[in-house]
Amino acid sequence: MAITTNKMLCLFAASAVSLCSFAQEDGGKKVTVSGSVQSDILIPQEDAAIGAKDYSEWGLTNTYADVTLMSKYIDAGARFEFTEYPLPTFYDEQGFKGWGVPNIYIKAHFKNLEITAGNFYEQFGSGFILRTYEERTLGIDNSLLGGKIVARPFKGVTVKALSGKQRRFWKLSDALVSGADVELNLDQWFKKMSEKGTYLTLGASWVNKYDKTEDNIMVGGMHKLDLPESVNAFDVRANLQKGGFNLLAEYAWKGQDPTMGSTLTGRDYSYIYRKGNVAMLSATYSKKGMSFLVQAKRSDAMMFRSNRGETSSIASSINHLPAFTMDQTYALAALYPYGTQPNGEWAYQAEFGYRFKRHSLLGGKYGMNLKVNFSHVHSIDRNDHAGNPYDGTAKGTDGYGSAFWKWGDQMYYQDLNIQIEKQLSRSFKLNLMYMNQFYNQTVVEGEGGMVHSDIYIAEGKYRINKKFTLRGELQYLHTDEDDGDWMYGLLELSVLPHWMFTIADMYNSGATNVHYYQGYVTFSHGSHRLQLGYGRTREGWNCSGGVCRRVPSSKGFTLSYNYNF
After folding, report:
1. pLDDT score, position 314
2. CA-CA distances (angstroms) from residue 368 to 83, 351, 353, 414, 457?
3. CA-based R_g, the chain, Å
């Protein structure tokens, strides 16, 4: 690791001492301490039926402990992580294994100024050119180690400036990432705007990646590629809100940044000198009992990483391109999740929500909620500058031409969701969902073709009495592609105030006829939560916001503990 554990602990101890001293000088302002502990453990078992392998370790764990000290003007925090024997999802990820204190910071905050030194997270706008964040289920912690300043010099003006090196598990990337962002809240300047309930925010951002490392990339075995040391990216945006209406427009562009790309259906995007861009328009409207959402996004060559030679890992991503698809929580609806394609896509999403009033024809005695969501993602047009379809090009060129409004020749993803939520009695609530989905498995996973599925879901929750609640799920996925049909069932009994008992089974009735059974007992008390389980986990993809990680098959006992203080 770039900074040893002992040095990090000494730095945190010094920060804590300084914090306490400063607090005493500040009139004895009390220092508050908060934090959390999260530990997920698997005792693995080999299972040839699902392809779950055996591990040399008797147990695997991802364990995290955070602590934060806060006072009136100074905060400090640190995180201890133990991933020396990580869970199967991260076991084979190069560089993930280790233990120590990889995250530590100290922050001074005053009325109009914040200064942070150490590890920090930040997002400019929608994240098109910068988003650093932590998502433990995906193994993401791409924080920057360096410094950040947030200033509010005038009313309605927020300015941010930062610089640092990005964390990649237990090391730091070679590239230096720097940037600045400014936001103007015009409604704070013009009193009549706020009086009329109109709010307008304008923003602009700049990010620079400086990397002097040289990759020996050859063209034709004779010419070495000249890779730029400095890559700049820019973002502009406007957000207008009036009553229940909100409109967001954003555009970002990135300079030439030849990186290792991905290969989709034989097309090579590696080390081409193409400038990237992304444009987004999003509109929402809501009032009591009704809501609309309409979004469109076009991206092209927006892969932006602190390590340009990396393709398989998502750990070194500087930016984030959100997927305009609905995040699914039901097991079979999430079986084929879509992952954003940073090389380029057209993405659309529309959603309509409506609540039928109580005692109306469809609302009945308790009312009813209806939500309809539609998503479509398509390839962008790519041609060889002569109008012919792009079928691959040599390294060292600008790659391809692309008409802005023109679609390409592939549909990447499409789904239609219809959800109904109905309270049938004071004790029983029913949720129904239908989903029609097209999933281009070749684009997202590398092979498999188009998978078309119909998914049917029913969820019921029955409150037996003040202490006992029973919840059940029945799900069915029908498809003629991939592994064929799936069925899923779940029963969950909640016993207030402490206990929950869950059993579930996901069964493939198509190609494999394999059961993925699971059982859990959960105990909660105050800020403590302990869960013991046993079962099988299917190989597949875990996605959040369009960012995905492959999950291998596994089987065994699980133990999870969470504590917040």
Report:
1. 79
2. 46, 17, 11, 27, 17
3. 26
Nearest-5° Cα angle at 369, 363 to 370: 110
Residue 307: left (phi > 0), alpha (psi -120 to 50), or beta?
Answer: beta
Distance, first Cα to last Cα, the chain: 29
What pLDDT band is residue 383 in, cutting at 50, 70 and 90? Answer: confident
Would you state the pLDDT for residue 361?
A: 86
Per DSSP, the three-state class of 444 is helix
CA distance 348 to 352: 14
CA dihedral 127→130→133→137, nearest 10 degrees, is: 70
Give the Cα separation of 299 and 125 in Å (integer).
Answer: 16
Give percent of the chain above pLDDT 70.
Answer: 90
Does 236 have pLDDT greater than 70? yes
- Strand intervals (E) in 381-485: 407-423, 428-440, 450-463, 468-479
Question: Where do we find the tokens 């989709």?
Answer: 264
HSE-CB for 82 with a 13 A CA cutoff: 10
Quickly list DSSP for 100-149.
EEEEEEEEEE-SSEEEEEEEE--B-TTSSS-B--EEGGGTEE--EEEEEE
According to the model, what pLDDT value does residue 29 have?
63
Put simply, whether the predicted model's pTM sits higher than 0.85 gets the answer yes
pLDDT digits (tens, 9 = 90+) for 310-363: 765 678 899 999 989 998 999 999 999 999 998 899 999 999 999 999 988 888
Q: Which DSSP helix (H) or strand (E) runs through 377?
A: strand 368-380
| pLDDT for position 313 | 64
What secondary structure letter does DSSP report for 514? Answer: -
Q: Which two tokens stand for residue 435?
A: 């989903």
What pLDDT digit, counting tens, does each position of 200-234 carry?
999 999 999 999 877 666 666 666 778 888 999 99
Report residue 448 as tokens. Answer: 């498999």
Residues 31, 70 contacting (CB under 8 angstroms): yes
Give the 3-state secondary structure percentages of the chain, helix then strand then coil, rounded to 5.
5, 55, 40
Phi, psi (degrees; rounded to nearest 5) at 171: -130, 175
Averaged pLDDT of the chain:
90
The answer to whether residue 28 scores a pLDDT higher than 80 is no
3-state secondary structure 89-112: HHHCCCCCCCEEEEEEEEEEECCC
Is residue 144 within 8 Å of residue 124, measured between CB atoms? Answer: no
Is 54 exposed, middle or buried, given 0-12, 13-18 or 19+ CB atoms closer than 10 A? Answer: exposed
**CA separation for the pair 223, 226 (Å, rounded):** 9
DSSP single-letter state for residue 54 = P
The residue assigned the tokens 């967001």 is 248
Dihedrals phi, psi of 452, to nearest 5 degrees? -110, 125
Strand partners, 353: 291, 371
